[in-house]
Design a protein that fits this description.
86 residues, alpha/beta, four-stranded parallel β-sheet
Length: 86
């Protein structure tokens, strides 16, 4: 699932994204596209991905969430969930 934000992607934005993704158990990928991303937001996203994998290992499931972070210019033509609208 692709999330985009013009400006700085913060830890609060990461919480919103995680809340949405956690409601969709079949989601395998989180892609964040933002002009800048704080270290706290990166850490929260990576911790979520690790937590999903640990829980899957404990329950015997095959579940993994991949986090990809793209920093730089964010075009308004890119289709994805706008974090500002959450």
């Amino acid at each position: 699932m692709l999330f985009k934000k013009r400006g700085t992607f913060t830890e609060e934005d990461a919480r919103k994204v995680i809340e949405i993704v956690s409601k969709r158990p079949n989601e395998r990928e989180i892609i964040i596209m933002a002009e800048r991303i704080t270290d706290e937001a990166k850490r929260r996203l990576w911790d979520y991905a690790r937590g999903v994998q640990l829980m899957a290992d404990m329950t015997g499931e095959e579940r993994k969430v991949r986090v990809e972070i793209l920093e730089g210019y964010v075009s308004k033509h890119v289709k994805g969930v706008d974090v500002d609208g959450l």
